[in-house]
Amino acid sequence: MPKTKEAPAPKARKAAPAKSKPTQDQIATRAYEIYLERGSTPGDPMQDWLCAERELTESPKKSGSKSKVINIAA
């Protein structure tokens, strides 16, 4: 009897790499950097934290451009 040719087993799909959640230290460091970029002027620490967390969790942009920081003198 002739051998039948078996179809190759389908290759398992690799799962997309899971985004790692930033640590509290990473978020705190980025929030502090945002504070410094603002010129060390008083602001809302919670907003700095949330902005840092958002920046660290969103996927990097393909353009590679950095966000502009605008300082407004009082």
Structural account:
By secondary structure, the protein is mainly α. It has helices spanning 24-37, 45-57. It has a domain at 24-38 and 45-56. The longest helix is centred in the middle third of the chain and has 14 residues, at 24-37. It is built from two helices and no strands. It is rod-shaped.
Name the descriptors.
74 residues; mainly alpha
Rg over CA atoms: 23 Å
The biggest beta sheet, please? none
- State which percent range the strand residues make up: under 5%
**Helix share of residues?**
25-40%
Could you say which overall geometry the principal axes of the C-alpha atoms support?
A: rod-shaped
Return the average pLDDT rounded to an integer. 79
Q: Strand pairing plus helix content: what structural class?
A: mainly alpha
Q: How many E-type strands? A: 0
Secondary-structure element series? HH
First-last Cα distance: 90 Å
Poorly predicted sequence stretches spanning 5 or more consecutive residues: none
What oligomeric state is this? single chain
Tally the helices: 2
